[in-house]
Amino acid sequence: MSLARYSRQFILPELGMRGQQKLSQAKVLCIGAGGLGAPVIAYLAAAGVGHIGIADGDTVELSNLQRQVLFKETDVGQNKAVCAAKFVHQLNKNVEAKAFNSFITKDNVFSVLADFDLIIDGSDNFGCRYLINDACVILNKPFISASIEGFEGQLGIFNDGDEGATYRCVFPEAPASQHAPTCSQIGVIGPIAGVLGGMQALEAIKWIGEIDGILRNQLLIYNALQHRQLLLDITPNLEYKSIRELKGKEYQPTEVEMKNDNNLVIPIKAFDQKGVVLDIRSKEEREAYSIGGLHIPLENLSDNIHQLSDIKGIIQIICTSGARSLEAVDSLQKLGLHNAKAVEGGLGAYIQWKLMR
Length: 357
Hints:
Layout: H1 7-10, H2 16-25, E1 27-31, H3 37-47, E2 51-55, H4 80-91, E3 96-100, H5 109-113, E4 118-121, H6 126-139, E5 143-149, E6 152-158, H7 167-170, H8 183-186, H9 190-208, E7 218-223, E8 228-233, H10 238-241, E9 265-266, E10 276-279, H11 283-288, E11 294-295, E12 315-318, H12 323-334, E13 340-343, H13 346-356
Parallel strand pairs: 1-2, 1-4, 2-3, 4-5, 9-13, 10-11, 10-12, 12-13
Antiparallel strand pairs: 5-6, 6-7, 7-8
Helix pairs in contact: 3-4, 3-9
């Protein structure tokens, strides 16, 4: 290990030589070598993380170069994981980089994750995030997840120890497909990916070096336009800590989730917190974060419809991401109640919209 190379970081008392040695021995897997993965891989390699795995089945496109700073124009058309591993070798010859030039699937997730201590989720779709979460719970591995959309992002470390919340503790199910646009649909500013990816790398270094202050049981929400940050506490839910098999059926949107009927949805900008709000999340989710209103968990909705039958105005149904709210609207309509609408994007969208104001 070159003392000169890492001198600026191990002189920090929080890390020290002991922490630097831990970095050199650590095995970190980065799933995704795109906008988030690129800065993660670069900073971990530069910091001297000894073993870095890179999993990505995609190829480099010209439109990637605006934010995926590992790649050059000459890389267009080549596999991202292979190109990223080559970048690591050129940056730091003391770091072992292993490329997995395929996407993470239910068939390979356990074999790919098996040899790594810490997983970095740099994926760009909800199916992969839930797959990573469930596999990490089963294998008892922590993972650091981030996501970006436009000028916003969020970050957290999940499944960190017996008391560490999982991704499902804050987002129990994937959002409806119409509430999960891609970067190609809504756009993204490159430095936002750099900021959130840099934060992921920082959390990884803190976790490996056992530095206090990691985002355990917390979700950081970042708005770049006003440079505002919000930290939400997450309450671990034992139900999501005890899964023992992949819930494959949840990696595809259900028939209800795929509905795109504007008559059933309230745009987040039209959501009126002073109006009639019905929270259909679980008791544990509501205790973790509440915006008031009525509370009837989704599974108890049909048994308590009498509480809603006399309401004349619009019933604004809210959950975490909007998916369960659409399911609730569908159920209520079948029971003859037609004045309920789902809040678009749920609490996640509402919190991010508040940060924008």
